[in-house]
Amino acid sequence: MTALTLSTAAVPGLRADAIVIGVAKGTASGSGTPVVAPGAEAVDHAYDGGLAGVLETLGASGAEGEVTKLPAPSGFKAPLVVAVGLGAQPEKDSGYAPDALRKAAGVAARALAGAKKAAFALPLTDAADAGAVAEGTLLGAYSFDAYKDKAGDAKDTKNGKNGKAPLAEAVLLGGKPRDRAYKAALERATAVAEELNRARDLINTPPNDLDPEAFAAVAQAAAKEHGIKVQVLDEKALAKGGYGGILGVGAGSASGPRLVKLSYTSSKAKKHLAFVGKGITYDSGGISLKPAGHNETMKCDMSGAAAVFAAVVAAARLGLDVNVTGWLALAENMPSGSATRPGDVLRMYSGKTVEVLNTDAEGRLVLADALWAASQEKPDAIVDVATLTGAMMLALGNRTFGIMANDDAFRTAVHEAAEEVGEPAWPMPLPEHLRKGMDSATADIANMGERMGGGLVAGLFLREFVGEGITWAHLDIAGPAFNEGGPFGYTPKGGTGTAVRTLVRLAELTASGDLA
Fold first, then answer.
1. Residue 158 has what pLDDT?
2. For the segment 471-503, what is each residue's pLDDT rounded down to a tens digit?
3. Is residue 31 very low, low, confident or very high in pLDDT (cuts 50, 70, 90)?
4. Is residue 347 flagged as an active site residue?
5. How many CB atoms lie within 10 A of CB 57?
6. Are 476 and 389 in contact (CB under 8 A)?
7. Is residue 355 classed as helix, strand or coil in its secondary structure?
8. What is the C-alpha separation between 204 and 503, in angstroms, rounded?
9. What is the dihedral of CA 119, 125, 128, 132, to 10 degrees?
10. Under DSSP, is residue 453 helix (H, G, I), strand (E, B) or coil?
C-alpha cells in the first residue's frame, strides 16, 4: 500500500518526484481556459499567474480523468507537475465534491506508478476532503501483481514482467498533521482502502487458488488478526444443519462449500447489522452451463462475499460502536455427475423447498440459506450483496448497482449512503405481480420466474428467506463488481471492491444513531 502523510511544507522546497495539482473546467462545456484549483497557488505564482494558459496550450481542459504533465518551475525541488482534471467548478463558496477529489487523486496515483514520492496539492477545505484524497490515492494506486514474474520490477517489462510498482509515498499538502480530525480522516481512509483492496485481491485471484476452503482460511486469518469471532461450517456441518441451498450449489464441485460467519462486537453497541455475501468462487453455470464467452470472468462471482468480508474487518479496525455480523455463503458451481440438475428440489435451511429450474440461478440459493441463518439472530437490519443477475446489468449498466428492500425508508437510506461514498446506485422496486411467476407445482417456490424483470424476480425470491419483521436490503452489484474495460478514476481494471464503502458507511451511520 502507498504510504500516506500529512504536511504543511511549502511546495517549492518539497523533495518529491512530482507535485499533483487540480484543474477544473473553465466553462460547463469544458471549452475556454481551464481554472487552476486551490492548493496550486505556489505553482501558479512560479508561472507568474499564467499556469492556466500554459495548461490550455498543452491541451488541458480540466475534464474529469484528464492528466497533463509539465516540467516544474525553476527553483522547485520536484522536477514534475501533474495537473489532474477535477471536472466542473463547484458553486461559489462551496468546495469540490468529495468524489471529485477522490477520483482526481486516484487518476494521479495511477499516473505516477513507479514514482517513490508525490506531493498532492489538491484543494482541501477540511478533514473530510483530506480523507477523500487519501482514499482516492490508495485506491487509485492499487495493482494486482501476484501472478506476474518479478512484480513491480520497473527495469524489465518483457516476457510478462509487470513494469512499474505502485506509487510508494503520497504527501497530502494543506492538511494539518497534528489535528485530530485530519489524523482520524487518514486513519479511516487507510483502513477502508486497505480492506477494499484486500477484497479486490480476492476477486482477482484465479479460482484454482481461491476455492471456498481457501476463502474461508483467508477470513479466519483476518478474524484472528483483528479480534473478530469466526465460525466456519464445512460440508458435514452444513449437511447436519440442513443448508440445502449451499450444499445443492456446491454438489457438483470437488471443492466443498462453506458458510463463514464473522462477528464483530462492540461493548457500546446498541444496534446489530448483518451483512450477507454471495461467494461463488467460480460459476460455470452448473448443468445449465454458461455459453462460450461468458465464463472467463466468473472468478468474480464471489465479489459480494469479498465486500462483506472487507466491510466487517474495516468496522473492526475502525472500532465502530455497532455489532456487525458477516455471512459468507461460499460454493463453487460446477457440472458433474453429482451436480444439482434442473428439476431437482432442494430443502433449504428455512425448511422451504425450492425447485431448481436453472442451475445458473445459483446465487439466490446460497444467499437464501445465509439470509435465513442471519435472520435467526434478529438483527436490526440485513443487507445482502451479490453479483446476482445479468438483468441488472442490462437495466443499469456496468457502473451502477441496484438496491431493493422490504422497507422504502431503508432502501432510501442505503441509496443515500452509497451516493455519499461515491458508489453509483439506484433504488429498484419489488413488484408483487412478479412473485406468481415463481410458483411451482412441485415445491414451495421455484428459483426462476419471468424472464423480463429478472433482477427484480431474484430480489423477490430472496425476500422469501428474510425473517419476519426484519428490515432488509439487497444490493445487486453484477454490473460494477468487475471492470472489464480500462481503469477510470480510482477504479482499476478487474475486481473493483464495489459495495465495501457503502456497507462501512451504513455501519458508521448505525453506530452514530443516524440510521434508524
1. 39
2. 999 999 999 999 999 999 999 999 999 999 999
3. low
4. no
5. 11
6. yes
7. strand
8. 21
9. -40
10. coil
Sign of the dihedral through C-alpha 166, 139, 134, 198: negative
Catalytic choice (110, 200, 364, 411)? 364
Q: What one-character-per-residue DSSP string does 46-75 give?
A: HTTT-HHHHHHHTT----TT-EEEEEPPTT
The mean of the pLDDT values for the chain is 95
In this structure, are residues 48 and 36 in contact, taking their beta carbons and an 8 Å threshold? no
Q: One of 148, 164, 183, 290 is an active-site residue; which one?
A: 290
Q: What is the CA radius of gyration of the chain?
A: 24
C-alpha cell at 147: 501472478
Q: How far apart are CA 406 and CA 462, in angstroms?
A: 11
Answer yes or no: is pLDDT of 161 > 50. Answer: no
If we measure between CA atoms, which residue out of 103, 109, 141 comes closest to residue 20?
Answer: 109
pTM: 0.96
List of residues 6+ apart from 57 with CB closer than 8 A:
none
311 HSE (CA, 13 A, CB side): 33
Which tens digit of pLDDT belongs to each residue from 373-421? 999 999 999 999 999 999 999 999 999 999 999 999 999 999 999 999 9
- Gap between the Cα atoms of 111 and 93, Å rounded: 30
What does the alpha-carbon distance between residue 138 and residue 4 come to, in Å, rounded to a whole number?
Answer: 8
Residue 364 annotated to the active site = yes
Length, in residues, of the chain = 516
Helix axes 500-512, 303-318, angle to 10 degrees: 40
Q: Label residue 426 exposed, middle or buried (CB < 10 Å: 0-12, 13-18, 19+).
A: middle
**CB-side exposure of 78: number of CA atoms within 13 Å?**
29
